[in-house]
């Protein structure tokens, strides 16, 4: 690890795809660079002052050249664009069996929470060859969660949930960074990703004192913030039921339909008037400024766990 490395190790399922795209971009850029500078030097030498070359017979009709190079560069850029876009979309579309891990950036540390309630700071333990889905947010300013060995990076933006996923393919320890200047100790905001054999990972999970799981803590908050007064099973208030909600389409009052994902749940707690579920009066008060990002994650995890209960959805590894 001590020696100078030009490339970080490649330890995730899409690292190779990323490297190919990077190589292609580098190749195209190098080709254009050599072409432009090659011709420039050639013309400088060939048409230098006093050289005996034919200067009179200018090319008359150049449209072929014009159309050819415009067409070719356009095609080349389209190929690169679609190549990059597909890769981007793939990195942001996790498979359904991925394990959720929550990451909150804050000046100047990464707080990481596993679904079973295990918490770590600036260290991320993951099992090898299992897909992991990260749900990222920030408590203060914009940070950027970057693991070069996995070829992933994503801004952590206050007030938003960003998701990305990866499948680590090599057991080992890798660096993780904050890749967005975020204040005085930005350079120190980093840590280690530890990729372990699944059995070692399970042992690690068990060795941690998990305390209550995210969803259990969320359930307690659900009561203490008064959510259960309207959304609880025994309530007489006409409020949307939360059991089986997560992951389902929700028809809205204005005719649109949205999927009840992390983003929708979070926004509905903070801005309940923005997307009102069809058939319900817009009476829910906003909790903006009252619930911190940590607690929001727990509430969302709790509501998510309600979906698993009724829908009996696919088995999740871990919790
Ligand atoms: Cu956080 Cu830079």
Characterise the protein shown here:
This protein is of the alpha+beta class and 319 residues long. It has helices at 15-46, 63-91, 198-207, 214-224, 228-231, 262-270, 293-311, and strands at residues 99-106, 109-113, 119-121, 123-127, 132-138, 143-147, 152-156, 162-166, 172-178, 190-196, 249-251, 257-259. It has a five-stranded mixed sheet with strand order 3-2-1-5-8, with helices on one face. Strands 4-10-9-6-7 form a five-stranded mixed sheet. A two-stranded antiparallel sheet has the order 11-12. A hairpin with a 5-residue loop joins strand 2 and strand 3 (119-121). The two termini are 34 Å apart. It binds dinuclear copper ion. Dinuclear copper ion binds at residues 105, 108, 143, 178, 180-182, 186, 189.
List keywords for this structure.
319 residues; alpha+beta; five-stranded mixed sheet; 7 helices; 12 strands; 36% helix; 20% strand; binds dinuclear copper ion
Bound molecules: dinuclear copper ion
The strand order across the widest sheet is: 3-2-1-5-8
Strand content: 15-25%
**Main β sheet profile:** 5 strands, mixed
Indicate the mean pLDDT: 85
């Amino acid at each position: 690890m001590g020696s100078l490395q030009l490339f970080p190790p490649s330890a995730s399922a899409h690292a190779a795809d990323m490297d190919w795209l990077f190589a292609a971009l580098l190749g195209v850029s190098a080709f254009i660079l050599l072409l432009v500078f090659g011709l420039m030097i050639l013309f400088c030498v060939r048409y230098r002052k006093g050289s005996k070359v034919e200067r009179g017979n200018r090319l008359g009709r150049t449209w072929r050249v014009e159309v050819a190079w415009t067409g070719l560069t356009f095609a080349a850029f389209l190929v690169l664009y679609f190549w990059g876009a597909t890769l981007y979309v793939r990195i942001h579309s996790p498979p359904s069996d991925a394990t959720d891990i929550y990451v909150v950036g804050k000046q100047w540390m990464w707080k990481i929470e596993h679904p079973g309630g295990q918490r770590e700071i600036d260290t991320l333990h993951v099992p090898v060859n299992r897909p992991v889905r990260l749900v990222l947010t920030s408590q203060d300013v914009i940070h950027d969660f970057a693991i070069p060995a996995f070829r992933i990076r994503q801004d952590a933006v206050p007030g938003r949930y960003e998701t990305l996923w990866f499948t680590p393919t090599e057991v080992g320890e890798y660096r993780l960074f904050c890749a967005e200047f975020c204040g005085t100790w930005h350079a120190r905001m980093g840590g280690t990703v530890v990729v372990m054999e699944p059995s070692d990972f399970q042992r690690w999970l068990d060795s941690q004192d998990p305390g209550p799981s995210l969803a259990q803590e969320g359930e307690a908050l659900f009561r203490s913030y008064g959510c259960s007064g309207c959304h609880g099973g025994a309530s007489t208030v006409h409020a949307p039921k939360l059991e089986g909600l997560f992951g389902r389409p929700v028809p809205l009052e204005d005719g649109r339909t949205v999927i009840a994902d992390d983003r929708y749940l979070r926004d509905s707690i903070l801005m309940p008037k923005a997307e009102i579920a069809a058939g319900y009066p817009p009476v829910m008060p906003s909790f903006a400024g009252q619930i911190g990002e940590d607690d929001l994650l727990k509430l969302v995890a709790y509501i998510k766990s309600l979906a698993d209960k009724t829908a009996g959805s696919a088995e999740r590894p871990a919790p």
